[in-house]
Amino acid sequence: MSDLIKDIEIVDKSKEVCDVVNVSKDNAVAGQRKLYIESYGCQMNFSDSEIVASIMQKEGFGTTSNFEDADLIFLNTCSIREKAEQTVRKRLTQFNKVKADKPALLVGVLGCMAERLKSQLLEEEKIVDIVAGPDAYRDLPGLVAEVDDGNKGVNVFLSREETYADITPVRLNSNGITAFISIMRGCDNMCSFCVVPFTRGRERSRDPHSIVAEAQELFAKGYKEVTLLGQNVDSYKWSSDDSLKGKAQIEKAEKKGSDVEVVNFANLLEMVAKVNPDLRVRFSTSHPKDITDEVLHTMAAYENICKYIHLPAQSGNTRVLDIMNRTYTREEYIDRVDAIRRILGDDCGISSDMIAGFCTETEEEHKETITLMDYAKYDFSYMFFYSERPGTLAAKKFEDDIPLEVKKRRLKEIIDKQAELSLERNKRDVGRVYKVLVEGTSKRSEEQLKGRNSANKVVVFPRESYNPGEYVNVKITECTAATLIGEAVD
Ligand code: SAH
Ligand code: SF4
Ligand code: F3S
Predict the structure, then answer these.
(1) pLDDT, tens digit (0-9, with 9 covering 90-100), for 133-144
(2) What confidence tens digit (pLDDT) does each residue in 358-396 have?
(3) Is pLDDT at 311 greater than 80 in this prediction?
(4) Is pLDDT of 7 > 50?
């Protein structure tokens, strides 16, 4: 068993979504031009790559999992931290080596780094053929044609409307059981450390009817879980009046008593939950300033809405939160944790993102992050040290003054605290029975299945005669900080 546990812990590192790479599968048929897509960053980026694959498929491109075999390489990039951009640069160097022997090969950079650096990678550094920002993917066939004709292919225009609502994604890395659905794009918050508002543009919400249709289609194909994606899902707001742009205009019209159809996030959750009781619904990311009791009550009302909330705090200190421009205090964050526990109970999973060593953070302020973690009892967290990003409010206003060793030491303290909390939270589950949606076999052994419970915890148990895609009641018998281990019960 100890070997199994070791392996599970390694596998679970894949939950650190940021800076993780995701590669297209083989679906090209003979005679098709082959596209290789490699994606970095968040789930939104992975989801966008599926839209890109769909757009390119209509142009006759099939996907490949081997870049040496490709006619076209797209690197869908992330700018969130400096390290993410360094990884992409290394990869571009490798692709350019292949291109040296295969001049017809085209290399395109998509996503947040394309948007941030605009034509720099193409014109100054000359290491790519195509540059396309997150709102320019419909133009990719046009950009490829431009380059085929010997011209430059750049489009970094950010849109106020684009949601790709009508495009059916080609599922690239799917297990056939769980899928992501983008419900909105962009972000209207201005967290001072964050590059996303600059790379993804203004917030806009996708037509809820197209979201429900996508969920229905996935369920009909055998999928059992959808995750609704947005940088701030609680801010979702859509109106049937196309002339209203963005949340502020919709809210103004609502106040005036206009009779247009308006859908908020709680309404959308309910609409998707009603697709089928056997379709689980998850969502990410929730913003502490926007998550309402209405959303929490909707979660409580539907068994198939998973009881798990990713509620990034970033810091536990009110002064640091203020200069991060997160627009809530420690007390207001705690109020949301209390509301979750009151309405959804102690079993609801809560996770966080934390940044160690933000500009001017003192030792005492850092300790408040640790005490907030103790209060919230996170099941897990994504933890980073601060990385200054050019052009952000923090880069303009504050000095990045915490020495790297101090940032790393504080980060380690946060990670150690989380490991302690995760183990504590998982130990509570030993002896309990959870409904688990089986997603596949454990990497270590074909004899072990792996899935998640409603609270998003990974559960591993002996296969017996169960299969991926089934819901199985599993009694938890042991745990690590990362995984629950159990056996199926009737
Ligand atoms: N929209 C989400 C976060 C998207 S970015 C939210 O508001 O929570 C994912 C995480 O990356 C952030 O929550 C933050 O913890 C981290 N992050 C963003 N910018 C960063 C930076 N400059 N340095 C270190 N971590 C950063
Ligand atoms: Fe970045 Fe803040 Fe928007 Fe999240 S809410 S994407 S951290 S600006
Ligand atoms: Fe990275 Fe862009 Fe996502 S910066 S985290 S890929 S929104």
Answers:
(1) 999 999 999 999
(2) 999 999 999 999 999 999 999 999 999 999 999 999 999
(3) yes
(4) no
Q: Which residues pair with residue 474 across a beta bridge?
A: 434, 488
CATH architecture of 16-155: 3-Layer(aba) Sandwich (3.40)
Pocket test of ligand 1: the residue of 43, 353, 397, 415 to mutate, having most ligand atoms within 8 Å of its CB, is 353
Tell whether ligand 3 has an atom less than 6 A from the beta carbon of residue 392.
no
Q: Where are the domains of the chain?
A: 16-155, 175-306, 429-488
Residue nearest to atom 4 of ligand 2 (CA): 231
- Looking at all shown ligands, the one closest to residue 49's CA atom is 3
Residue type, 242: D
Distance 46 CA to ligand 1 centre (A): 17
pTM above 0.85, yes or no: yes
Which DSSP letter does residue 417 get?
A: H
Fold held by 175-306: Transcription Regulator spoIIAA (3.30.750)
Q: How far apart are CA 24 and CA 148, in angstroms?
A: 23
Beta strands in 346-447, from DSSP E residues, in sequence order: 349-356, 380-385, 433-441
